[in-house]
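The protein record minuted underneath.
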Amino acid sequence: MTTPDLSAFVKAYDVRGLVGSQLTPEVVEALAAGFVDELDAAGSTVVVGHDMRDSSPEFAAAFARGASARGADVVSIGLCSTDETYFASGWLDAPAAMFTASHNPARYNGIKFSRAGAQGISLSTGLAAIRDRAQAYLAEGAVPRADAVGTVAVRDVLADYAAHLRSLVDLSGIRRLRIVVDAGNGMGGMTVPAVLGTAAGLAELPLEIIPLYFELDGTFPNHEANPLEPENLRDLQRAVVEHGADLGLAFDGDADRCFVVDEKGDPVSPSAVAAIVAQREVARVRAAGETGEVRVIHNLITSRFVPEAIEAAGAIPVRTNVGHSLIKDRMRETNAVFGGEHSAHYYFRDFWGADNGMLAAMHLLAEFGGQAEPLSAFAAAFDPYSLSGEINSTVQDVPAAYTRIVDAFAGRGEFDELDGLTVTGAPDLGFWWFNVRPSNTEPLLRLNVEAATPEQMELIRDEVLALIRS
């Protein structure tokens, strides 16, 4: 059998490949061995969890074989969300591997690796070395057994995970809310009843949960488990209106991202959610007696209102590139209390710096449920500007398109190259900004635009798109 080229599907922040042709049990065993070797985890605990995809249990078992062969003691936590593996990694202070392809179609699977304490691993911080070690084992034809082979044990952490989240956000005193939750046949179908309901043996909350697609099914029979795409929110939007619900929540396949719609079925911007949670987290640590500078991270394509809200709360906004492992690293470097991304990833210092969509949803419910306005009115105060959302364009000559944009906007605003190109309009020309970022893996340019008014946003959006696509 031809040895697969792991560099084709070991990505910048995780492993994501086609089942059978790229990801096989043999490949997973080799990656597990490389993981244990690179992290020097022989003789230590390593956690493995998996989502509901058909291939995930077999891959998790293969990982346990490869990791234990190299001397690690494997704790298998079974079916779980990605943020459950972060919990286990932090709670047990152990490296972890989560088998999931998040929102990708059923023919894909993947691995999200963490160091002990839920620290992210990217190509530049160990994933490339894990890949190369695994490639060598595949070329040799087998993973060699360590002198002291490790053990494999099973442990259910769902109840502990749910209790931990309940300890971070108290929902017991909010007004009663009716919530439609679309789990997209993903892991939210297991975690929502445990955290927001009584399935894990916790006290009942003042929440009426109306479930949508809670059956775990890795074939995603109803719609893709990617709420970032508007068409995947349609069922939730209809159900919220039909049931007269106060709001709706949608989780992606591995339930680490959460999207929100209001009582009218209209989406609530992830930037608005980030602003709400940021102000709550700053207020919480101040009330707990934390003095000195408090920092909150936001990536450069969240709404301008996010850093404004952070500053209004008396904290320091820290602007970063887009990127999951990068932001987890920045959380630790800056000791930030919270971090928010435009893609509905939300990071918490009290959750080992890792992202947790459920925890963000709980903060939103706590803040919203503590006042009387409908969500549409409540959220509007945190979403005063007009955002385009991310627009992708296939471009054969990315540098040429980039040059056209630079030439067209020279003298019209400030240029910033933190992550791609950001142009911010000069104050006398009104408030607007846009960011253009090239894809790392495809001939794409990604455009995000924001302005003070929808009309202004549309003008800038259309002008930049014409330059990109000409």
Observations:
- Residues 386-469 form a domain with the TATA-Binding Protein fold (CATH 3.30.310.50).
- The longest helix spans residues 270-287.
